[in-house]
Specification:
With 413 residues, the protein is α/β, with parallel strands linked by helices. Helices cover 28% and strands 28% of the residues. It has 10 helices and 16 strands. It has a 6-stranded mixed beta sheet, sandwiched between helices. The protein has a 5-stranded mixed beta sheet with strand order 5-1-2-9-8. The longest helix has 27 residues.
Length: 413
C-alpha cells in the first residue's frame, strides 16, 4: 500500500501497463495520441493531442499543488519513447480513470500555480485536436487570496459525469437501521486504490489496484455462493474513489461488515506475511501509523480537494462512540487471523490497529486486510497465483461465517 509518486521519465514503463486499461469499445472513446510539456520564459505549456475535440474541466489544488484535467474516457496511445520529461512547473504526471466515463490527468506542480488559459486548437498541419493549458508560477499568498482554488476552466460542452457515486461524503447515521430477522447480511468489499492511483508496485510490475480488485471479485463470488450474504463492491472497475466515497457507499448500502483489501510494500524485501488492521486513533506501532498516514493520502493522489473536509470528517468521527462498532471490527479481525494462520504466513502481530480513514464508519464494523507484501519476491508470486487467492478468500469467507455466527449467538442470549 506504499503510495509512490513518479517522475515523468519513470512513468514511461508504468504507462505501457496502463494502455490496456484504457482500451475501450465503441466510437465514444477518444484517443490520446501525444502529450507535450514546454517551458517558456513566462509560463509552462501542457498540450494534449486527441483524435476528437474533447469536453474538459481544469482546476488546481493545493497542499501539494496540482493541476487536474478531467476529460471524457480516453484510450492511451502515447508511445513509450514519446512520454515527455518533467520541466517548468510540472514535476510529475499521472493519468487514469477517475469515473466510469471520465479520465483524469493530474500534474504535480513544483510550486503554487495559476492556470492562465486553456483552449482548443483544431486539426492542422498534421496535428489532431489539441487541448492547450498554460500554467504560470505565483506565490502561495496570491494563490490563496486570488481564489485560484475555486476557479475552473471548462469547455462549452460539459463533461458527462456519472451520478451514482457522489463526489461528496454521505453523512452517517448514528444508528444502524433495523433489518428483517432473516435478511441477508450485507458485506461491503472494498478493493483498494484504483484509477489514477495504482497503489504499490510489485517486484514483477503488477499493480496493487489490479491485485486488490481480483481478490475482491473472488471474495464476492465466495460469499454470495453461501446464500447468506449480499455483497456490495465499492468499485467493480479500475476507477478512482475517494476514501470518503468508499465509506459513503458502505453506509448507503447499510453494510453489516466492511472489508478493504490491499497488498503491502516494505523497504526490506525479506518482510512478508498476512495482516489485518482495525481502527485506532493511535497506531499500534510506528509502522502501523506510517502505513495509515500513507494510505490516508490516497485522495491527494487522485486529485481530490481535501481543504474543506474537516467538518465532514468530524461528522464521520462523531464519537467512534460507537465503541461497540469498533469492538466488533476488532472481533472480526481476531477471527480472521485465526482462520488465516492455517492458510498463509502471518506477519508478526498480525492484528494491528491504525487510524485508516477508510475504516471510519461509526456504524459499520470495518477492517483493512493486507494480503501480503508485494516487495517480497516469493510472496508476490503467491499473491499472483489463483490457487493462493482461492485459499485466502476461502479463509476470509469462513471468518465471515464464524463472526456472524458468534454475533447471532450473543444476540440470542
Amino acid at each position: 500500500m506504499n503510495v509512490r509518486f513518479f517522475s515523468c521519465t519513470r512513468l514511461a514503463g508504468l504507462f505501457l501497463t496502463l494502455v490496456a486499461l484504457f482500451v475501450t469499445v465503441g466510437a465514444q472513446s477518444s484517443d490520446l495520441d501525444a502529450i507535450r510539456i514546454g517551458k517558456h520564459p513566462d509560463k509552462t505549456r501542457f498540450v494534449m493531442e486527441l483524435s476528437e475535440e474533447p469536453a474538459y474541466r481544469i482546476f488546481t489544488l493545493p497542499d501539494p499543488y496540482r493541476i487536474v484535467i478531467d476529460l471524457p474516457k480516453l484510450n492511451w496511445k502515447v508511445p513509450k519513447n514519446k512520454v515527455p520529461r518533467a520541466t517548468g512547473a510540472v514535476q510529475a504526471l499521472r493519468f487514469g480513470l477517475f469515473e466510469p466515463n471520465i479520465s483524469r490527468v493530474v500534474l504535480d506542480a513544483r510550486y503554487p500555480v495559476s492556470i492562465t488559459s486553456a483552449f482548443l486548437l483544431p486539426p492542422k498541419d498534421g496535428h489532431k485536436h489539441r487541448l492547450v493549458v498554460d500554467i504560470k508560477r505565483i506565490t502561495a499568498a496570491t494563490y490563496k487570496s486570488s481564489g485560484e482554488q475555486k476557479r475552473q476552466l471548462t469547455s462549452a460542452t460539459p463533461l458527462k459525469e456519472e451520478t451514482q457515486v457522489a463526489a461528496t461524503p454521505i453523512a452517517p447515521a448514528l444508528t444502524a437501521p433495523k433489518k428483517p430477522k432473516n435478511a441477508k447480511k450485507i458485506i461491503v468489499v472494498d478493493p483498494g486504490h484504483g484509477g489514477v492511483d495504482p497503489g504499490a508496485i510489485g517486484v514483477s510490475g503488477i499493480q496493487e489496484k489490479k491485485l486488490a480488485l481480483s481478490y475482491a471479485q473472488s471474495l464476492k463470488k465466495i460469499l454470495e455462493s453461501k446464500g447468506r450474504y449480499k455483497v456490495v463492491m465499492t468499485r467493480n472497475t479500475d476507477t478512482s474513489l475517494a476514501l470518503r466515497q468508499r465509506v459513503g457507499i458502505a453506509q448507503k448500502a447499510h453494510g453489516d461488515l466492511f472489508i478493504s483489501l490491499h497488498a503491502n510494500k516494505h523497504p526490506s524485501s525479506r518482510v512478508r506475511g498476512f495482516s489485518v488492521y482495525s481502527l485506532s486513533e493511535n497506531g499500534s506501532d510506528k509502522e502501523a501509523e506510517a502505513l495509515a498516514a500513507k494510505e490516508n493520502k490516497a485522495d491527494i493522489i487522485i486529485g481530490f480537494d481535501l481543504s474543506e473536509q474537516s467538518a465532514d470528517v468530524s461528522k464521520i468521527l462523531i464519537d467512534l462512540a460507537q465503541r461497540e462498532t469498533n469492538n466488533q471490527g476488532k472481533q472480526f479481525a481476531n477471527v480472521l487471523v485465526g482462520e488465516m494462520k492455517r492458510e498463509a504466513k502471518l506477519l508478526g502481530r498480525p492484528h494491528r490497529s491504525a487510524g485508516f480513514a477508510v475504516l471510519k464508519s461509526p456504524i459499520i464494523p470495518s477492517v483493512l486486510v493486507e494480503l501480503g507484501y508485494m516487495s517480497n519476491r516469493q510472496e508476490e508470486r503467491l499473491l499472483r497465483s489463483d490457487k493462493h487467492k482461492e485459499k485466502l478468500v476461502a479463509a476470509i469467507g469462513r471468518a465471515v461465517d464464524q463472526y456472524f455466527g458468534k454475533l447471532e449467538s450473543y444476540n440470542a442470549q
